[in-house]
Amino acid sequence: MKNKRLKKVTVTAIMAALATVLMFIETPLPLFPPFLKLDISDLPAVICAFAIGPLWGVLVELIKNLVHMTSTQTALVGETANFIVGASFTLCAGIIYKKRHTKKGAVVGLAAGILSMALAGVVANYLILLPLYSPNLPEAEKASLVFYGITPFNLLKGVILSAITLFIYKPLSSILHR
Amino acid sequence: MLRDITLGQYFPGNSPVHRIDAMVKIILAVLYMTVIFIAKSFLAYGLVAAFTFFVIFLSTVPIRFVLRGLKPLLIFIVFTAVLNLFMTGGTVIWQWGFLRLTREGIIYASLMILRVVFLIMSTSLLTYTTSPIALTDGIERLLTPLGKIGFPTHELAMMMSIALRFIPTLLEETDKIMKAQMARGADFKTGSLIKRAKALIPLLVPLFISAFRRADELAVAMECRCYRGGKNRTRLHESKVGRIDFIALGILIVFSALVILSNKSG
């Protein structure tokens, strides 16, 4: 294969398609309100970031959400939130794994990814999404809603996502780097 | 089950709304959403409502289709409304324990419901009257200026069309692997969260392997056909900005001015 970049383009595109497919296999979480669902659609982005580079992983997130926009039901707000949260996780994990290409690097990267995802979730919800929908909520109420309602969900999602990534990346990497 | 899922919600037709160029329609939708965010009085929302229903009528999309899009967000709408209803300070009308109903709260909650409802209706209308392929094309043309500063606009659009093309294929593949693993005794639906996450691994590994293989084959196929990126690439269907697009833009600008004016009066 002469054209390395073309290979990256097709892998990214197919991973984005797979991410969209995985969006449909959502599992409702016990203990959380029913509209917060666990979806593993960030998985292809993380795998893509590990395999061919962090920016390509972010592209997977971008394309996934652009495709999802063609059937949006939240006036693009859901897609924007998903992109901000997913891209921060992917980018952070991908950059650290690129620097430390070992199993330990992957674990550290994913842990950092979880933290940055939780942080991005707080920032996105606090500064962009809640003000758009409930602009005159008192500061204290807003903070408690974000910290108790959204952060635990993002943390749990990140942990599950990282665990699955660690399990499946090893069997996949032999096929990826042929 | 999985096979029955269709992506996008395009409602084919040949109305004036369908015929507006995709790129222009995206710009119009964004402008319209901004107008909805600007609207602050009930009079302004009355105008928004009238305009939205007028466009729905023009588009020939059955109104129940547009209303159906609101259903999944019903909980969210009620949640925001309640939040706004009780958390807004102002003149107290009714109080019971920590629940406090204010005049301002009622006004804000109803305005918020109107805002969310019309935002969702306008974006649904965009996706009902534009096919995913046309939207992809519109996004590519919209991002063209970014190409000047090195953003891979063409590649992004290419990836998006590949993704759209392969979603049905991968859905079928997922369905097939799920059934194969279920025949071997896999259980995806019951058990604790950890158990369910674990059950996904035998599904995900073959799925990823098959996806990578497809990406490989696609890259080879594109290379064999001398694909070399966006430079000098021609299209079968060229879309052009025409008269109808300018008319639509003009109508929306007049409408925005009306909304801003009515904000002051209300």
Write a brief structural summary.
The complex is a heterodimer of chains A (178) and B (266). Chain A is mainly alpha-helical and 178 residues long.
Tell me what you see in this structure.
The complex is a heterodimer of chains A (178) and B (266). Chain A has helices at 4-23, 43-52, 54-69, 77-99, 103-133, 139-176, and strands spanning 27-28, 37-38. Chain A is mainly alpha-helical. Chain A has a single domain, classed as Arp2/3 complex 21 kDa subunit ARPC3 (Orthogonal Bundle), CATH 1.10.1760. A two-stranded antiparallel sheet of chain A has the order 1-2. In chain A, strand 1 (27-28) and strand 2 (37-38) form a beta hairpin. In chain A, helix 1 packs antiparallel against helix 2 (43-52) and helix 2 runs antiparallel to helix 3. In chain B, helix 3 runs parallel beside helix 6 (103-129). A two-stranded antiparallel ribbon of chain B has the order 1-2. With 266 residues, chain B is mainly α. Chain B has helices at 16-19, 22-38, 42-59, 63-68, 74-87, 103-129, 132-147, 153-183, 193-224, 243-265; strands at 92-96, 99-102. Chain B starts with 15 loop residues before the first helix and ends with a helix. The radius of gyration of chain B is 24 Å and the shape is flat. Chain B has one domain. At the A-B interface, helix 1, helix 2, helix 3 and helix 6 of A face helix 5, helix 6, helix 7, helix 8 and helix 9 of B.
Helicity range of chain A: over 70%
Can you give the mean pLDDT of chain B? 84
Structural class category of chain A: mainly alpha
Strand order of the largest sheet of chain A: 1-2
Computed Rg of chain B: 24 Å
Which oligomeric form is depicted?
Answer: heterodimer
What does the overall shape of chain B look like?
flat
N-end to C-end Cα span of chain A: 11 Å
Q: How would a crystallographer describe the biggest sheet of chain B?
A: 2 strands, antiparallel
SSE arrangement:
The complex is a heterodimer of chains A (178) and B (266).
Chain A: H1 4-23, E1 27-28, E2 37-38, H2 43-52, H3 54-69, H4 77-99, H5 103-133, H6 139-176
Antiparallel strand pairs in A: 1-2
Helix pairs in contact in A: 1-2, 1-3, 2-3, 2-4, 2-6, 3-4, 4-5, 5-6
Chain B: H1 16-19, H2 22-38, H3 42-59, H4 63-68, H5 74-87, E1 92-96, E2 99-102, H6 103-129, H7 132-147, H8 153-183, H9 193-224, H10 243-265
Antiparallel strand pairs in B: 1-2
Helix pairs in contact in B: 2-6, 2-7, 2-10, 3-6, 3-10, 5-6, 7-8, 8-9
